[in-house]
Design brief:
Length: about 80
């Protein structure tokens, strides 16, 4: 496994109440290990770590990364 780069980080800004920032485990088993709920206007600064290799964002939010900014979109109702 490549050594995790602890300098990797990004920012999640919630555009509605109840946005979930969900951390997924690094390694053989990929599973949720933490879910953080943000309310509208709240910001979370997130790092990738030896425990966290991926993050899922659920809800309307802006995700600011070193390589650009993306916004989540509404899925099927
Ligand atoms: N204990 C987790 C870790 O060290 C904390 C964490 C880091 C986290 N990045 C995250 C939790 C992203 C949720 C989403 O890996």
């Amino acid at each position: 496994m490549a050594k995790p780069n602890h300098d990797d980080y990004f920012i999640v800004k919630a555009h509605e109440n109840g946005v979930n920032v969900i951390g997924l485990t690094r390694g053989k088993d990929t599973r949720f290990h933490h879910s953080e709920k943000l309310d509208k206007g709240e910001v979370m600064v997130v790092q990738f770590t030896e425990h966290t290799s991926a993050v899922k964002v659920r809800g309307k939010a802006e995700i600011i990364t070193p390589f650009g900014t993306v916004e989540t979109e509404k899925g099927q109702p």
